[in-house]
Amino acid sequence: xxxxxxxxxxxxxxxxxxxxxxxxxxxxxxxxxxxxxxxxxxxxxxxxxxxxxxxxxxxxxxxxxxxxxxxxxxxxxxxxxxxxxxxxxxxxxxxxxxxxxxxxxxxxxxxxxxxxxxxxxxxxxxxxxxxxxxxxxxxxxxxxxxxxxxxxxxxxxxxxxxxxxxxxxxxxxxxxxxxxxxxxxxxxxxxxxxxxxxxxxxxxxxxxxxxxxxxxxxxxxxxxxxxxxxxxxxxxxxxxxxxxxxxxxxxxxxxxxxxxxxxxxxxxxxxxxxxxxxxxxxxxxxxxxxxxxxxxxxxxxxxxxxxxxxxxxxxxxxxxxxxxxxxxxxxx
Length: 332
Known about the structure:
Layout: H1 9-18, E1 34-40, E2 45-52, E3 63-69, H2 75-90, E4 97-102, H3 107-113, H4 115-132, E5 135-144, H5 146-157, E6 164-168, H6 174-185, E7 192-201, H7 203-206, H8 209-219, E8 225-236, H9 241-252, H10 254-271, H11 276-288, H12 292-306, H13 314-330
Helix pairs in contact: 2-9, 6-8, 10-11, 11-12, 12-13
């Protein structure tokens, strides 16, 4: 299943604006980050991980979301990721989640040679998190550049563990394009959500596009993957995380958000049962949740109620009626 990703320009503007404050702000939806040390048998050394809990995390919660991201020792990446997650949680676009930042001792070796880090995450870190906090009902892995390369590899190799992947400007050229080969090998065997983004500015980003576009072509044809892709026009390699992480998180949790919207509109309709706007948005939620026949009935109801709305001007009513008829037609 392929989803074309489109977000309002205002979202991109907000992301660009808030990143300037990401190191000085107190995150309203997140607790203070903790750096924990793990004695790793895999690495035969102490490893450190940054854990940021949701502010309302409860010990007795049975399930939570883990979002694992690479390059947490890069202050820019860490700040951008936490700020993006905080903003989306605050606006109920993603659920309260545990954010797990991986600190690298030898970044290139760990991300490109892959297997030790892969084993550390699966056999040591994730079990520790489940024991210390709560079981995860969804685990997302995310990264930029070589981090995006590793995140893709981990998602493909341990698809039973990772439900979703966010790869921002991933470098798919290392190790003789082995990730591209693995994508082809795993065709129609992998499941979950995958978000991929690439910019188009400066050589260090342009040089990655060939591999990313090959991956896009493969992923678009995976029957068990919900795939989203963005070309971040005007963004260079190191700038793509500025908006890429937020867009990726929003895409990965799109169905969760529509479930929330459905509940919100049901509450609104208790007080305004005939208002076409709430009826239409409830229909949108049902449509995105693949309850198409129910959505069609609501669009038809909204269409009838719109014609009774005396507050709408002629041009406004014409626009709304056109939009609702298009939605009804789309339902089949």
